Amino acid sequence: MSHQESLTAYIAAFVSELVLSGITDVVVSPGSRSTPMAMVIAEHPDLKLHIHVDERSAAFFALGIAKASNRPVAILCTSGTAAANYYPAIVEAKYARVPLLVFTADRPHELRDVGAPQAIEQLHLYGHHVKWFTEMALPEKSDEMIRYARTVCARAVSIAAKAPAGPVHLNFPFREPLIPKIADDLFQTTERPEGYVKVVNGDIVITDEQFKEIAALLKGKEKGMIVCGHIADKTFGDRVTKLAETLKFPILVDPLSQLRSGIHSQENIIETYDTFLRNDDAKNALKPDIVIRFGAMPVSKALNIFLKENHSALQLVIDGGGGWRDPASLTTNMIYCHEATFCEKLQANVEIQSASSFLNKWKSVNQLTKDHMTMIRDTTQLSEAKLFCQLADMLPEGATLFVGNSMPIRDLDSFFLNNDKSITVMANRGANGIDGTVSTALGAALYSKPLYLVLGDLTFFHDLNGLLAAKLHNIDIQILVINNNGGGIFSFLPQSEHPTHFELLFGTPIDIDFEHAVKMYHGEFTRITDWDHLYSMMKADPPKGLKVIEMVTNREKNTKEHREFWRSVSREISNFVKGDHEWM
Amino acid sequence: MSHQESLTAYIAAFVSELVLSGITDVVVSPGSRSTPMAMVIAEHPDLKLHIHVDERSAAFFALGIAKASNRPVAILCTSGTAAANYYPAIVEAKYARVPLLVFTADRPHELRDVGAPQAIEQLHLYGHHVKWFTEMALPEKSDEMIRYARTVCARAVSIAAKAPAGPVHLNFPFREPLIPKIADDLFQTTERPEGYVKVVNGDIVITDEQFKEIAALLKGKEKGMIVCGHIADKTFGDRVTKLAETLKFPILVDPLSQLRSGIHSQENIIETYDTFLRNDDAKNALKPDIVIRFGAMPVSKALNIFLKENHSALQLVIDGGGGWRDPASLTTNMIYCHEATFCEKLQANVEIQSASSFLNKWKSVNQLTKDHMTMIRDTTQLSEAKLFCQLADMLPEGATLFVGNSMPIRDLDSFFLNNDKSITVMANRGANGIDGTVSTALGAALYSKPLYLVLGDLTFFHDLNGLLAAKLHNIDIQILVINNNGGGIFSFLPQSEHPTHFELLFGTPIDIDFEHAVKMYHGEFTRITDWDHLYSMMKADPPKGLKVIEMVTNREKNTKEHREFWRSVSREISNFVKGDHEWM
User: Fold this and answer.
1) 3-class DSSP assignment, residue A152
2) CA-nearest residue of chain B to A89?
């Protein structure tokens, strides 16, 4: 048996099984050691191969595809530092629970740790940040090793996908010569042609008895609230809103919960809590006895402080992935159960409530805050706050909004209100980095159209290389860069009170004219001058190709505007809560 | 004792000790969790603080400073994926034996693995790729903990610097509030103000007895050769050339050995072996009985194949850092000894040889190959080979030449000839990646002036973000981009014989006009049209600011030119070796 035949048969078996396991997209970075895998992948008619020169961007691009397609995505690179460039996206995938299959090519054993070129220690290269690592055997063509290759492949796909989803790393040692033998029957499989192993991933659910116990906890608790952070499962929104209606609990919806937009019931939705939970009178009036929390930690610091202050309330955390999302150690009951199933089954176990004055209080304060946002909306100057107030109106039906970290996600949280459009909101909230945002959005844009990315100038800069994918793969995306020339978030933090090194260490203005970069990647660049200009740009037909709109703002004015709004709405809320009035 | 006082005293003690341990440069990326360390570093009058937004580039920038300054350099970033972006440069530092101090800020224990924002598992984040990892204690002000902070600092610096030099990782948990108390006496130290611990790093040396044994091995071996790869120690060149003269051995000098330029003896230097060791007649005439090899593995594949073919020769490998640099398992004697000391002491133990016909053969074939390079020099078209032939002539006295990986370093190896200028050659040859090259060169340019970077278009693209440092820190650098629109090296590899997916997977043209990027970073861009144009650009005054010269070449023509040259010189060599002639 020749080396080439073994190499080819083994990899073709692996790649066949990859497709039979449901994988459709592979992001490949050029390199020599990865040649056998890259060439076989390129031959498969059912795989979309996306080439990406910069491995850091490549991995985030794959992350975006996985987020938007709800399927694991494979990435492939050569040996050496190429593989180390995948690390940031792998860490994000781990914490954001996004399935990735990381395939790294490696030198064989005899060329490791002996000064061979591009040979680094790749075993456990990503440490604790992958769900599973395995060092593949050298290619062999025996029936046994073909079964091994197919089995490992199916197993890897299932581990990446099962809750909590995440990255899996397979390291492939390849000996030279690296060229596989490409023939027409490359993917012909005689044994189990429909797939070698079918893996059925179950969900974790609790028993009926346990549901009864939880229902008993809820009994007599009028002052209940539900908190929803990000959950990938699209069936969840409908289920949780039905549960909330039955219980007459307010649902505090993080922008990534996908509950601020869409066709589910909006009766109990509370979305301006990040503003009104800064006010002590509101917080006193809204103290809960019980909190039911789902999904990732919400973005709002005000909400998290409020939950902490109410540590004597029962706090139930429901997690279908088995983590421990509770940075303030508040949980009284940690419940490992698939979230949508939990809502459905709990609903069946509790009594329908007809009304709730507690819910009405939340709704009143929420409505008051929303009404007060005219203060932001009436601004004629370009303003970051107003942008997020107006976004839902500007975006077309069915749009996906990808939001950068740091200020944009916080402003989205504060100012993006409930709406009946079907808008999907995405962000990289696993580790909340500003890295890889452009690439993640571009990857998502392959499956979620039309896609609008809103991000700050430092975040845009950090992944400027990612724009190459837009050019090479003709991706349609509209990018709105909020350019306040530096790190806007620091103006809200205590660091800003220490001016000596503030601009050097935190403000970090980079004074870049992004028009050059956009032109380099053959995109259209527009620096908007006023709101009408922005509306006309945003409300035009969905983007074709790369379109970048820049909105120049000022960090100091921005901080001032936010603070004035919070002060003003806080006064209103205090007057309302303490005043002689009817709650809703 | 307040939290702020503890925080301040602990970090100030650490930073004081950092300076007293000889650290002068810190590269800081903006972030919140790293605030206490960043603010204290910014206050120290003896530290140069370089701010860098993109952590991947930041770490490579620090690597460049460390290479050029011969001192460990510290890098500091916030928690989360920021730290993961350091990984590629850390891996490179490990294998290139460059000292780095990696400081990552982290959430304290109670905020780990519980969904807190920007909190990822940072313990052992870089796995096997750092020489030492330690999780720092939370800041405390007790005398004991101040002693601890100072001791760990001195220890970390010494571990990073001692052979084999490399990266060290300290993870700092910080609790809020994060603002230190900046006062005039911040760095005043009463206990041991001259430095808390002075660490003396010894070198490994073998005994006189062991030297005698090695000298005995050499006795009667006329056909000896010395091979020098990269060694950071600047005293080595003079010592090894003296040893070679005593033994009358040829020295095969990798471009990174620093022995192709400079004022040391050039009597025994052989530099065109990458060309003539492709010829079987030459290889037959030049078979050694003994090989003495120093430093990193040489770039030349032809040389490595030649060494492998001569596996029955004694092959001595001298390594002052204690690694195992021998990918073909050829070593007969692995000698762990400081290299310059080895040369000096061995020289004292061997007899002076008066002449060697074996050396003369090497010199004859080398001279013939050099003479034949007129074939390359006479080209009037823009040519990658000719560029490297002419580089020594074009560069000013005292210049540093930083060379990109993939083709440029190989062409440098083949065509950059012995010269008496003092030119320092640098490259990232730890893991041979194309990543981070721009940033490493920019960091080096702070201490090695004037600096010229020569690299390919994909390498330039991969670290385009690195150019921001040139703009922000007004760094003087001249960059020559060889733009053959893709990965030129693959045209020399077997992949090129399989045209179906060649351009997609390996050629990877990106069709980018880099003029846009250079303008964005306020640099000067020139696309040269002919050789005179290039000479005038390169021979102008050393660069002020960012200057980028682009030379457009063609991958196919380039491969053809190389192959024709190799064939032609090979014919000459065969005629010469087999012919009736006098060796030198």
Assistant:
1) helix
2) B81
Q: In 3D, which of A197, A227, A180, A212 has the Cα closest to residue A350?
A: A212
Q: HEC profile for B423-445?
A: CEEECCCCCCCCCCHHHHHHHHH
Confidence at residue A366, expressed as pLDDT on a 0 to 100 scale = 97
Q: What is the ipTM of this complex?
A: 0.97
Residues found in chain A? 584
Looking only at the bridges linking them, the beta strands covering B290-294 and B224-228 are: parallel
Nearest to A65 by CA among A353, A436, A331: A436
Question: Chain A to chain B, count of Cβ pairs less than 8 Å apart?
Answer: 247
Whether residues B508 and A121 touch (CB distance < 8 A) is answered with no
Cross-chain Cβ contact A87/B82 below 8 Å: no
- Which residues are registered as beta bridge partners of B104? B77, B171
pLDDT at A43: 97
- State whether B398 and B542 are in the same domain: yes
Q: Give the pLDDT score at A264.
A: 81
Say which CATH number the domain at B275 has. 3.40.50.1220
Nearest CA in chain A to B116: A327
- Token look-up 């060791």 returns B277
**Could you say which residues from 46 to 65 on chain A have a Cβ atom under 8 Å away from some Cβ of chain B?**
49, 51, 53-56
Q: What is the mean pLDDT of each run of 10 residues along chain B (584 residues)?
A: 93 98 98 98 98 98 98 98 98 98 97 95 98 98 97 98 97 97 92 95 96 96 97 94 97 97 89 98 97 98 98 97 95 98 98 94 97 96 97 96 97 96 96 98 98 98 98 98 96 94 96 98 97 95 95 97 97 90 66
Among chain A residues, CA nearest to B107: A327
DSSP letter assigned to residue A352: P
Q: Which domain holds residue B545?
A: 373-553
Tell which of A97, A124, A505 to mutate to test the B interface (max B CBs under 10 Å). Answer: A505
Q: pLDDT under 70 in chain A at which residues?
A: 1, 580-584
Query: Looking at the complex, does the CB of residue A297 fall below 8 Å from at least one CB of chain B?
Result: yes
Q: Are residues B319 and B378 in the same domain?
A: no
Whether residue A539 sits in one domain with residue A512? yes
Cross-chain Cβ contact B127/A124 below 8 Å: yes
Q: Does B88 contact A92 at a Cβ distance shorter than 8 Å?
A: no
